[in-house]
Amino acid sequence: MFLKEVFTFPIIARLAFIWLVASLFLFSDSIFIESTLSNTMAITVFFIILITIIIASYGAVAQADKLANLLGEPYGTLILTLSIVSIEVVLIAAMMLGPTELPSIGKDSIFSVMMIIMNLVIGLCILVGSAKHKEQNYNGSGALTYIAMISILGGFALILPNYIIGNGSGEFSFAQAMTIATLILLIYAQFLKYQMTDYRHLYVQPESPHIITASSQTTNPKDEDLPISSNAVSSSRLVVYFRVFLLFLMILPIVLLSHDMATIVDFGIRKASLPPALGGVLIAIIVFIPESMTALNAALNNEFQRTINLCHGAFVSTVGLTVPTILFIGLLTSKTVRFGLNSTELVLFLLTLFLSLITFHGKRTSPILGMLHLALFALFILLLFNP
């Protein structure tokens, strides 16, 4: 029965562990994370929560990957991306709603995601993929739509605040925050609609000429005419529903643990006198490790379009969901929200955007460009600690 294939022992064991840890912190009334928390206890609690979040994230990715195989592209990638980004949005919102004022946490997180996903992960994927498959094909038109979305949404959220009056210091006024949040949501929703309907073909891996064979051409035409039983359709739908349910069960403990994680990260940054922007970097790294591994695996499997869908789609979704969420939270709670990039971040943003445009203006990857993406990420890390 298909239930045995869905609810396997490893999945049940994973769920039992992450829900046990989440329940302990949920019902402990936060006794481990008071202001009197010692350094040793803080480190212990941090690693317990971190390990639990990573285990839960990998579980969520596994289920999203199964859904990707069941539903096909780009639906499967969208489910995976939205699952991961929703975790990130919850973590950022939790840190913003914490006791410490963190007006730039949204900007720091979005910028960190851009540097990690669009430089580190993309650079590694290009180099790893080219080492095994040389130049790899992708859909150039689809890749450029991602670049266009990143340019406009990123420009609205991260560049515009520095060149308007607003409330000063890179803050939007009430009218500006409402309008920009609504615009970003509408643009992102329409982009998803196009991606899943009329323009779906732009986000599907193009076939390489060398893999088109006579056998591949003669085995498919009849397949569409084969009758599919109603029982098979019903079972397939049930499998999708159960996979979605498991995905929810994997993500929810991350939501429950997010506030504790935010408090511990804030405690550690203050104690160690580290750059405040490090909080956003840690969130991005923790949340996007599973998706990064999936993108690398896609590059190794010569599915570079899926790598693009995962990486660029992750950043588009990050901006499309994080910016409106943070702006609305700021308006509802009167929290200060600043999205404007500083001069160094602006240079890195524009360099990343320009390099990405060069990298994906054609239809094949180049390992030289992958190396340049990694160099940009190395510069980002240097300037984070030595501005």
CATH topology tier name = A middle domain of Talin 1
Proportion of residues in extended strands: under 5%
Can you identify the CATH class?
Answer: Mainly Alpha
Biggest β-sheet description: none
Per CATH, the superfamily is NCX, central ion-binding region
Round the Cα radius of gyration to an integer and report it.
22 Å
Helical residue percent band = over 70%
Report the count of strand segments. 0
Low-confidence stretches: 210-233
CATH architecture assignment name: Up-down Bundle
**How would you classify the helix and strand content by structural class?**
mainly alpha
Question: Would you list the SSEs in sequence order as H and E?
Answer: HHHHHHHHHHHHH
First-last Cα distance: 58 Å
Form type = globular
Calculate the mean pLDDT score and round it: 82
Number of continuous helical runs: 13
**Please, how many domains?**
1
Membrane topology: Multi-pass membrane protein
Protein name: Calcium:proton antiporter
Domain Sodium/calcium exchanger membrane region: 42-195, 245-385
Pfam families: Na_Ca_ex
